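Sample pair:
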Amino acid sequence: MEAKILHFNDTIRRDINGAGSRLELKSLAFEGYLNLGYNTVARVLVSGNTDEILRNSFKLTNSFDDFWGNNADVTCYNPKCRSTSVGDLIQVGNEIHIVASAGFEYLCDVK
């Protein structure tokens, strides 16, 4: 399955007063701001159930010994982007999940 990785735009983050909690982001999503605050940075080919896909997508889009964009199962759209972190999104099928401080939380379905 393919997972889509979206990083929060740090400029937009400052403009909306540091929104980042699940509740704040869900509210923004319903107000139509979600697409303005995130950039698609990668697609990851992973298999497994949703939890495994989320964990492996996160792992594959973090740099350890080498830049994460060099991973074979990753298509990176911006070779200068940072690693995936808290507040970023991972889309699995029609579901959007937010990277939390410990694990992942379901945010909403793509409309």
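Residues 50-60 form the longest helix (11 residues).
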